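Quick one, tokens below. Sequence please?
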């Protein structure tokens, strides 16, 4: 073992498959576990007692007690330029966009401004245990340039794209079909596949793109088959009615994207609340994914995501915080609301399924499960340490918890960024709750 090997000891949990299918075989849990990382990749995982004799005596071991270590969280839908409008009062989607979102996004043509906001945003992610995200920029290429520059410095696995938007938005936020194609292409050439970064072709949503622009988005996906596609789908009833008016020849909302060649295993659709059976079927047939964004869906009054149906159709689902319509960067808080949304539907979201969605489920949805999402040997060692005793209330409640499953559930109910003791990227400590980084802005 060479000198870039590190070991981490504590309670460890990770998933091998979806617990909704075969719960008993879906995860590995080590009450006293050891994670061994070499050159940023997982080298060993198992019970400490079994692995310790195999390690060299001089290897230092970082111990994490009274908590649980698991793979870094994956956020499958978030907008970095909307950080500063989180919690904006009173509107549903279309009015919220006009009143709050578009004015704030208009600032991101300024590179210095965008760099500061990108840094702040990435620090927030790490503080909340999120190590990979699928991220909206703005219409300005500078926003994506700034984001990738900062993410590259922090060695993060991140996906981002420039918004394509050529109608139904303020003039200073619209591009054209051709300019959106050219600018996206230049960003793909510069950034896609560089270090741990990926590009997502990002038409905002059907109402803000002409058919010509959506065709250009489809052209990019044909030219670059391994880039991602990221957009919004069927979030709000007024939005859905508007899409029917704008695209009368399409059978349903999803069909708008389908007719322009935008459905594939690297396509991620945020929300997908008001879908018909044929849309679920088509998402399934094309291996497209959905991002479940409960804090956003409640905050904007959009509706209750049908997780059960997505599961029946075998559609990959990840969790999205959808900041700034979403109200928290914390996956724990997002799962908390996610549980309540399912309660309102008369369904149960188990704690295992929750943490699956936040880790391997998200990696599956992003088609990155060969790199991240669990501790299989050779995967990138991005992980988080959750603290069972982060507040007095959590400590008292945890005393009553009878087993690991109950502790996990309490983490989602009471937890937030205070419960994130540490976040590691490729085995390096990047966030330490006890010595937080100074804010970038
Ligand atoms: N639909 C189109 N744009 C947006 C956005 O910025 N946020 C949300 N939640 N939905 C959208
Ligand atoms: Fe969104």
């Amino acid at each position: 073992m060479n000198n870039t090997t590190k070991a981490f000891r504590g309670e460890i949990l990770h998933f091998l498959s979806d617990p909704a299918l075969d719960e008993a075989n879906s995860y590995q849990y080590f009450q006293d576990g050891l994670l061994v990382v070499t050159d940023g990749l997982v080298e060993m995982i198992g019970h400490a007692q079994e692995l310790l004799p195999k390690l060299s005596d001089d290897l230092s071991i970082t111990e994490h007690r009274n908590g649980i270590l698991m793979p870094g969280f994956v956020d499958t839908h978030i907008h970095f330029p909307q950080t500063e409008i989180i919690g904006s009062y009173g509107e549903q989607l279309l009015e919220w966009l006009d009143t709050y979102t578009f004015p704030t996004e208009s600032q991101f043509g300024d590179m210095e401004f965008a760099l500061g906001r990108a840094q702040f945003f990435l620090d927030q992610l790490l503080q909340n245990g999120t190590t990979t995200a699928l991220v909206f920029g703005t219409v300005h290429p500078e926003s994506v340039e700034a984001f990738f520059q900062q993410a590259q410095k922090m060695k993060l696995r991140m996906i981002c794209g420039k918004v394509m938007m050529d109608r139904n938005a303020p003039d200073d936020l619209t591009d054209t079909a051709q300019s959106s194609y050219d600018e996206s292409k230049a960003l793909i050439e510069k950034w896609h596949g560089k270090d741990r970064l990926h590009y997502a072709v990002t038409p905002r949503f059907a109402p803000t793109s002409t058919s010509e622009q959506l065709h250009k988005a489809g052209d990019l996906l044909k030219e670059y088959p391994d880039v991602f596609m990221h957009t919004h789908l069927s979030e709000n009833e007024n939005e859905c009615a508007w899409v029917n008016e704008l695209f009368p020849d399409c059978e349903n909302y999803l069909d708008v994207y389908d007719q322009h060649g935008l459905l594939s295993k690297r396509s991620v659709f945020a929300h997908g609340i008001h879908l018909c059976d044929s849309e679920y079927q088509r998402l399934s047939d094309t291996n497209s994914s959905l991002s479940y964004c409960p804090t956003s869906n409640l905050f904007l009054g959009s509706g209750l995501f049908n997780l059960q149906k997505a599961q029946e159709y075998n559609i990959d689902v990840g969790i999205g915080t959808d900041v700034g319509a979403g109200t928290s960067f914390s996956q724990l808080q997002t799962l908390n609301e996610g549980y309540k949304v399912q309660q309102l539907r008369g369904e149960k979201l188990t704690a295992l399924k929750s943490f699956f969605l936040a880790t391997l489920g998200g990696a599956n949805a992003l088609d990155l499960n060969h790199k991240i999402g669990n501790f299989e040997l050779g995967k990138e060692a991005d992980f988080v340490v959750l603290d069972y005793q982060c507040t007095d209330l959590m400590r008292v409640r945890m005393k009553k918890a009878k087993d690991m499953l109950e502790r996990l559930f309490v983490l989602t109910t009471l937890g937030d960024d205070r419960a994130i003791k540490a976040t590691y990227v490729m085995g390096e400590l990047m966030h330490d709750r006890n010595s937080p980084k100074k804010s970038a802005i």
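Residues 79, 93, 97, 101, 204-205, 232, 235, 296, 322, 325 surround guanine (ligand 1) (CB under 6 Å). The CA atoms of residues 333 and 416 lie 6 Å apart.
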